[in-house]
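Z., the sequence and structure:
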Amino acid sequence: MLWVKAFHIFFVASWFAGLFYLPRIFVNLAMETEPAATQRLMTMSRKLYRFMFMLEVPALALGLVLWLYYGIGKVGPGNGWMHAKLAIVVLLVGYQHWCGALLKAFERGANKRSHVWFRWFNELPTIALLLVVIFVVVKPF
């Protein structure tokens, strides 16, 4: 079980690196006016977005193994933290897909949001990670 946990943590941390960095690239895209720089940032965004899926899938799969096979956080008293954590994970998957929609808007030249909006958008995974860590470590309910 410890190997599964270790790889789960590794893939979650790697996935979060993408969740932190892709919106940061969007901040730069929203500010950029030079076509060559915009194209470079678009290439980086596309590659990172695809790579994030290769990190998300094993992170989620290993988490499911820990939950369903090893019974970590199974239904019962004192395991409400797991349900809260899973709700945040679902929101993070949605956040990643939202990033994909924003990337498509940039590709079409249809982005209507400012770099300030993307700076705030960039903070959502940080808040999610803080909550997940608190739920997993403290197990408040």
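The CA atoms of residues 3 and 86 lie 21 Å apart. The mean pLDDT is 95.

Let me know what you think.
H.
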